[in-house]
Amino acid sequence: MRIQDAFAKIFLAAAVITLPSCCHEESMDQLTKRVMDCAVRQLTILDHHLAEDEFPRTFINGAYLDSGAEWWCSGFFPGSLWYVYEVTGNETIKELAVKNTLKLRNIVSLYTDHDIGFQVNCSYGNAYRLTGDERYLPVMEAASAKLAGRYNPTVGCIRSWDHEWFNYPVIIDNMMNLELLLSCSGLFRCDSLSRIACAHANTTIINHFRDDFSSYHLVDYIPESGEVDHKQTVQGFAHESSWSRGQAWGLYGYTMMFEKTGDGSYLTQAENIARYILPLLPEDGVPYWDFNAPGTPHAMPADAPGHPAVYNWREGEKIARDASAAAIMASAFVTLSSLTKDKALAFECKKMAERIIRVLASPMYLAEVDEIGGYLIKHCVGNMQGLSEIDVPLTYADYYFLEAVVKYGRR
Ligand code: GLY
Fold it and tell me: Which atom of ligand 1 lies closest to the CA of 171?
């Protein structure tokens, strides 16, 4: 045997022996520990740079963009800290969670729209869930009353925005605000909060969804009659397209509604939305910002209405992914997989949740220290049509990613 052949054989044998260990897939427990270690580090960096009355919003071209309490995302950073505390028991992270939650103590006087549900449920809701500390209750009670005050019984929905260029706008995102009403209904023995949440969800099933269970972004109602004036998009590619994050809000919203109320019509809706979304997701599970934007594998025809010029602002498929939509879907898929009685769907939801969690926890999406200023998840799209927050980190991607990891571990 030639000396080179002998070396080649020794090398091959060594490779065969080491292969199983080096190719061994990280367990979900190991992944959770790695993600939480990363989150402790990153969220601490993020907190240290914040002014006393500020919240993280995003990080663009090496610079922080923060927000005040009034921005719809202000509850996500405290909520992320609460999830990290829930898993790690890290008392320093708990102190940051308390501090950032209490920064929202005046939110009710600052409220301007339906997003008060997001803002308070993610921060105060998690704070109360994990600590049972009653000092969190007054803000939750006042916020739920404000949100319920936006309900119009003729329409059967909570008004999303007060902009005067709409009659009575309701966006699919509003499904997410209902969780605050359902939690507070039980906490404060106030059945009307739960009735309003269910009425809103029922009206939304009727008017927001197409036959294939994709959803419109915005339905504008005539408040005096409750009739639909028109349906349109705001952040999606086209009025008839399927904006990815909107589909994620719908999936999560109806999954949550069933989990909290036990009403089977919500489970059916969530299952149908999941059956619509699952075949459209790319191999790694991270959707393009709109399922019908040109250049995506499931794009609408080139002559479809919309704004292709906006999409073409930069080329490349990764640029157009929206990791925030993936994170929200992953969290909803984890929950739906344990609620649905359809075994095949449960299997597909769990498989997709794990796939998304794994890819978001990979170097492709999970940030290195200081890479994006303390945020966790890269490559999100805030508002492509508004040319705002494109291919950046977003606090809600971090929040729902951490939630998905925590919920996956709880199954
Ligand atoms: N609720 C706003 C958004 O999803 O961008």
Answer: 1
CA distance 252 to 234: 20
pLDDT over threshold 80, residue 217: yes
297 within domain boundaries: yes
Q: Whose CA is nearest to atom 1 of ligand 1?
A: 173
Instruction: Name beta bridge partners: 325.
Output: none
Residue ranges making up the domain that contains 30:
1-49+281-411
**Structural domain includes residue 315:** yes
- Give phi and psi for 89, each to the nearest 5: 65, 15
345 Cβ contact list (under 8 Å, min separation 6): 271, 274, 275, 336
Which residue CA neighbors atom 2 of ligand 1 most closely?
Answer: 173
Residue 394 lies in a domain: yes
Q: What is the model's pTM? A: 0.91
Structural domain count, the chain: 1
Q: Which of 47, 113, 115, 290 is catalytic?
A: 115
Sequence-ordered strand ranges (E) for 244-333 = none
Dump pLDDT digits (tens) for 331-366: 999 999 999 999 999 999 999 999 999 999 999 999
Give the Å distance between the CA of 155 and the centre of ligand 1.
22
Query: Is residue 345 one of the residues assigned to a domain?
Result: yes
